[in-house]
Write a structure and sequence with these properties.
heterodimer, A: alpha/beta, Rossmann fold, 7 strands, B: alpha+beta, Alpha-Beta Plaits, two-stranded antiparallel sheet, 9 strands, globular
């Protein structure tokens, strides 16, 4: 049998909904594990990416740490897949893009009720937010996109099995969804 | 016997005065489109319906049918251009499908599905376009406007109210409301107006019914737009103006 493909996954400015959908391929995960093994991923808890065949990234780019992780994935993975609305369009976090970042932070942490004597978080451990939220393809080259919020387990299964079989992945009606 | 033209190798009959689009849809051949609507004069602006006639491109919604034309439509060269047009529309506005109540009933989204558009590809512009929620029964979300002018045409030609217009030029072109305040509450638009029912995307929305049909059970969730558009088109032998979708709801 040929060597197993190595897959890494991560969630950047996402909600882990796409990762839940990856788990939603259910018992087919066992069939998938015959073909692939996981590198860096919430599934393995490996913290940094080794050389991989496929990287799957959920979520857009909203802070400096997201940029570093995305660069690590691009450097380590032969094929990079953006999964879900946030990775592909910026998604929900990008709904702040037509607003000024400072006014967002001021309203959330200073003006709105509920945070008495609040302050804008400034712990050095926290990655700095970017001025705007970006989809992945605006920062590095992305090879494939699986749209959906999240894409269904069936869509992910179809896409990955097409790709692993060496075919151009196609979703078709019912599996391609933007919502 | 009526004259015919060739569309992707098929013989398509037409009546004098029909456009290529009208004849094609009536004969059961789908040509992708956004700003074309069977009940309105063609607009020719979205360019999704571009076909090749004798090697030259033309908008099939405005092109008069002629005997003997040799027309190509469903070819990769044109579908790639259509994909790019859909991608540019997605990048130019704020089309956030997961929170849009038109999702599943949206022609732009359905065309994206049909053309296997997986990403907008371009840099998203994220324009700042505030909503108009002033009207008690109707919401205007300008973020999704694709400038097809269907609401402008419906409000002017059918409703006789001229509630909507396009203003500005080029990238600054945008939908406006014809009221001194610029607000929908100061117009005489009504829920029963034609203009309420022609928006191909999620700009003009009746309030309080957004999710009465759940996501997953909506128009284009059932069947692709290429199949639905054929149902909606007046068929050969029908009286003018009638359509399968209207009959289905009467």
């Amino acid at each position: 049998m040929s060597k197993k493909l190595r897959i890494a996954t991560t969630s950047l400015a996402g909600c882990f909904g796409c990762h839940m959908s990856i788990l939603d391929i259910d018992e087919r995960l066992l069939a998938l594990l015959e073909l692939v093994e996981f590198d860096r991923s919430p599934i393995t808890d490996i913290k940094h990416c080794g050389p991989c065949d496929i990287g799957i990234i959920e979520g857009g780019i909203c802070n400096a740490d997201n940029v570093h992780v995305l660069y690590e994935f691009r450097k380590s993975c032969k094929i990079l897949i953006a999964i879900g609305s946030c990775a592909i369009t910026g998604g929900l976090p990008a709904q702040r893009n037509h607003l000024d970042l400072e006014s967002c932070l001021t309203e959330v942490y200073l003006t709105e009720p509920g945070l008495a004597h609040g302050h804008i978080p400034n712990d050095p451990e926290l990655p700095l937010p970017l001025d705007k939220v970006h989809p992945l393809h605006e920062v590095v080259k992305i090879d494939y996109f699986i749209p959906g919020c999240p894409p269904s387990g069936d869509a992910i299964w179809k896409f990955l099995t097409d790709l692993i079989a060496g075919k151009t992945p196609e979703l078709g009606h019912g599996l391609i969804k933007y919502d | 016997m009526s004259d015919t033209f060739q569309l992707d190798g098929a013989s398509v009959p037409f009546e004098p005065g029909q456009t290529v689009m009208q004849a094609a849809l009536a004969a059961g051949h789908y040509i992708p489109h956004l700003c074309y609507h069977p009940e309105f004069k063609p607009h020719g602006s979205c360019k999704l319906c571009t076909v090749k006639i004798g090697g030259r491109t033309a908008a099939s919604c405005t092109m008069p049918a002629e005997a003997g034309l040799n027309i190509e439509s469903d070819i990769e060269e044109l579908n790639a251009l259509r994909r790019t047009l859909v991608q540019m529309l997605f990048a130019e506005g704020n089309h956030f499908c997961p929170s849009c109540e038109k999702s599943g009933n949206c022609m732009l989204q359905a065309l994206g599905y049909d053309l296997e558009v997986h990403t907008a590809g371009f840099r998203h512009m994220y324009p700042d376009r505030p909503l108009d929620a002033s009207h008690p029964d109707i919401l205007l979300d300008f973020n999704r406007c694709i400038l097809c002018e269907l609401c402008v045409r419906a409000s002017g030609e059918v409703d006789g109210k001229n509630v909507f217009a396009l203003s500005g030029r080029g990238i600054t072109k945008h939908l406006v409301v014809n009221a001194e305040s610029g607000l929908l509450k100061d117009t005489n638009i009504a829920l029963a107006d034609k203009a309420m029912h022609v928006c191909p995307v999620g700009v003009i929305l009746p309030k309080r019914v957004g999710f009465s049909v759940p996501i997953g059970k909506r128009k284009y969730d059932q069947r692709p737009i290429s199949a639905q558009a054929l149902d909606d088109a007046p068929r050969q032998g029908d009286a003018g103006g009638s359509c399968a979708s209207c009959e289905g709801t009467s």
